[in-house]
Amino acid sequence: MKLSEAGLGTMRVNKLDEMYPAQDMLLQSGQLVQYGTGIFGYGNTTMLVKRNVQIIIEECLNEAGCIEIQLPTLQPDTIWKKSGRWDTYVNDGTMLVVKSDRGELCLAPTAEEACIEFMAEKLKSYKHMPATVYQIGEKYRNEIRTRGYLLRGRSFLMMDAYSFDTDLKGLETSYAKIRDAYIKIGEKLGIELLPVIADNGAMGGKKSEEFMFVSPIGEDTILYDEDRKIALNTEVLEKENYEEYLKEEYGIEDISNLKTAKAIEVGHIFQLGTKYSDSMNIGFIDKDNTQKPYYMGCYGIGVSRLVAAIYENSVIKDSNGNVTGISLPKQIAPYMIQIIPKLDNEEKVKEANELYNQFAGKAILDDRENMSMGAKIKDCKILGTPYMVILGDKVEDGKAEVENTKTGEKEILEISQIKEKLLG
Ligand code: ATP
Ligand code: MG
């Protein structure tokens, strides 16, 4: 991206939100645009970060043998009335209902019903299972209290997966497969996603775990002990018979002396069992020629929430602790370097363009006229680019100063070696 063609002025940011400085910076610099409560448009950088997160999720799920599909986001009331969830979601105010001359529809808050409609056509026999499908699509929930910009929106991107098995043992295998895939997703993103025991109440069913990103801005509180490998959401303790639940489903008897931490719920996995197959009266023909219900699991990841969590975790601070910018992790940064040449030096401009071309779409070139180098350096940190490459008068031709925006470390490198050094 050449900044002279990106429709950007100098990105001035004023006093930042104390709780969510990174996202406030994105809004003030126009990388996010708020249209209404919990509704956002994405600029080029934020949209590409979201896409990169999405690609990592897709790679890990594909590797685990899941199949990607796409379900409609505009859904007729009929499928929700079949499962009995239309009234629940309409009455609690979550559902965004669309009235049309051909009946009522909704903007999908989740997609169990639509997925069952899609799969029941295909999974008629035990021979057609196991099967796990997933999609990454926009979801809509009329949240009463939106919070933390992208962390809790009314329109947000979610990965939702659904597994279909012939029995409980199969469901447990599918669940374990997705659980492993979630841990790999965290590893590839360079963050720890901690599985914690969750309340299984919301969706009905047996086992349920949430994947938590430990952070002081999290809404949830978890209890954990690394050594004993125990972690649970405090919500579980509000459950009737929670002791029985912990013992039967997870083999945990002693939850004394656990530490507490705040965390962001990034993902949630559920063993649904036959809840939906029973309420929607669907299933398959088993080996013994009788009709049986599917054993289902459902699995979600809040993609846009994850993007928000990663941004908030990537702020750069000055020595007084004030937030001065963002430095995105290399795994998901859409642009690896931001090149800032001294524009009135022809040789530097030539070198900058050559370097820009070498990075083939993975670089930003700040070629804006009539702007100071200082203002451009500030803007680089607002855009979150991991490395800043300065081609100024101070450094001899053929070399450049490369700054790691996260650590502030600077080194002088041969321009011809920068690509090899940073992209490996
Ligand atoms: P929460 O408890 O935070 O309201 P939930 O338990 O209702 O979330 P799920 O139905 O489990 O959410 O959805 C799967 C994932 O989608 C969540 O783990 C979360 O990461 C994400 N998510 C849910 N609601 C929102 C929202 N309003 N904005 C952004 N992401 C969301
Ligand atoms: Mg949840």
Describe this structure as you would to a colleague:
- The chain has 12 helices and 23 strands.
- By secondary structure, the protein is of the alpha+beta class.
- It folds into 2 domains: 31-312, 2-Layer Sandwich (BirA Bifunctional Protein, domain 2); 335-423, Anticodon-binding domain (Rossmann fold), CATH 3.40.50.800.
- The strands form 6 sheets. Strands 3, 7, 8, 9, 10, 11, 12, 13 and 16 form a 9-stranded mixed β-sheet that branches. It has a 5-stranded mixed β-sheet with strand order 20-19-21-22-23, sandwiched between helices. The chain has a 3-stranded antiparallel β-sheet with strand order 4-6-5.
- Bound molecules: adenosine-5'-triphosphate and magnesium ion.
- Residues 265, 268 line the site of magnesium ion.
| CATH-assigned fold name of the largest domain | BirA Bifunctional Protein, domain 2
Report the count of strand segments: 23
Helix content: 25-40%
Stretches where pLDDT is under 50 for at least 5 consecutive residues are none
In whole angstroms, the N-to-C terminal distance is: 21 Å
Instruction: Write the CATH architecture name of the largest domain.
Output: 2-Layer Sandwich
Keywords summarizing the entry:
424 residues; alpha+beta; BirA Bifunctional Protein, domain 2; Rossmann fold; nine-stranded mixed sheet; five-stranded mixed sheet; 23 strands; binds adenosine-5'-triphosphate; binds magnesium ion
Layout of SSEs?
Layout: H1 21-28, E1 32-36, E2 39-42, H2 44-63, E3 67-68, E4 74-76, H3 77-83, H4 85-91, E5 96-100, E6 103-107, H5 112-120, E7 131-140, E8 155-165, H6 168-189, E9 194-197, E10 208-214, E11 220-225, E12 230-233, H7 242-250, E13 259-273, H8 275-279, E14 283-285, E15 291-293, E16 295-302, H9 303-312, E17 315-317, E18 323-326, E19 337-341, H10 346-358, E20 363-365, H11 373-383, E21 387-391, E22 399-404, E23 410-414, H12 415-423
Parallel strand pairs: 3-7, 19-20, 19-21
Antiparallel strand pairs: 1-2, 4-6, 5-6, 7-8, 8-16, 9-10, 10-13, 11-12, 11-13, 13-16, 14-15, 17-18, 21-22, 22-23
Helix pairs in contact: 2-6, 2-9
Bound molecules: adenosine-5'-triphosphate and magnesium ion (MG).
